[in-house]
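Quick one, probably user error.
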């Protein structure tokens, strides 16, 4: 006795051969050693950290403001004159600092730091040669030069004022202290007299015509060029020749 068979839809009969071929191809590919193997999973790579930036290195000291060089004229005399087209000494540099003798502080005020171009060059030249001889010494401490247009620089501008310093040919420079502090000495026993004598010598070699020193310092130099004057025990006064 035969069992009844389920009737197969005609559309299914059409796609069965195609399905059989796909299954067969898959089996063959699985057995074929040449078929590519699945790629192993790759762990994600963390992005590289940026290299740390080196810390900025601060400058050893502020750079001095630019010097506006121009040909200057010293009119008249140091005690009765004027300064034409003066040059301002910066408030500080690698080889020097400035000192305000009235306010007793550094730097000196701008309007007290003017001289002829030749005077400013003498100051820088002396500072350079002095440092070369004494590399461990503090920078030289420069006081008053002249006012921007020269002229009277008397007591009305502070302290005892200046009789000279009127035409850009004069500069005050304070002696190095024994304790190496960058400020003017109050007494002669605070002055390093060895360095003070060297400072006098370097200004003479740099182009100073005369150098005034204090009576208690014992500083010396060529006759007629180094002169002893009161109120100069803490600083020298250098003057360059006109012209």
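Nope, works fine. Designed sequence:
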């Amino acid at each position: 006795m035969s069992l009844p068979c389920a009737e197969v839809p005609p559309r299914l009969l059409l796609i069965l051969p195609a399905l059989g071929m796909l299954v067969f191809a898959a089996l063959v590919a699985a057995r074929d050693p040449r078929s590519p193997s699945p790629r192993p999973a790759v762990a994600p790579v963390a992005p590289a950290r940026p290299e740390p930036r080196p810390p900025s290195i601060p400058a050893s000291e502020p750079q001095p403001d630019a010097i506006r060089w121009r040909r200057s004229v010293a009119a008249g005399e140091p005690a009765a004159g004027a300064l034409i087209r003066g040059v301002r000494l910066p408030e500080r540099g690698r080889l020097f600092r400035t000192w305000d003798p009235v306010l007793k502080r550094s730097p000196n005020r701008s309007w007290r730091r003017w001289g002829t171009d030749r005077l400013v060059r003498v100051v820088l030249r002396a500072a350079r040669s002095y440092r070369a001889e004494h590399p461990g010494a503090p920078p030289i401490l420069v006081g008053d030069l002249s006012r921007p247009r020269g002229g009277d620089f008397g007591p009305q501008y502070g302290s005892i004022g200046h009789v000279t310093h009127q035409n850009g040919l004069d500069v005050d420079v304070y002696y190095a202290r024994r304790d190496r502090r960058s400020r003017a000495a109050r007494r002669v026993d605070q002055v390093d007299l060895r360095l003070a004598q060297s400072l006098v010598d370097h200004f003479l070699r740099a182009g100073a015509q005369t150098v005034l020193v204090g009576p208690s310092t014992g500083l010396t130099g060529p006759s007629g060029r180094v002169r002893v004057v009161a109120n100069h025990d803490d600083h020298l006064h250098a003057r360059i020749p006109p012209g």
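Confidence is low (pLDDT under 50) at residues 1-6, 50-62.
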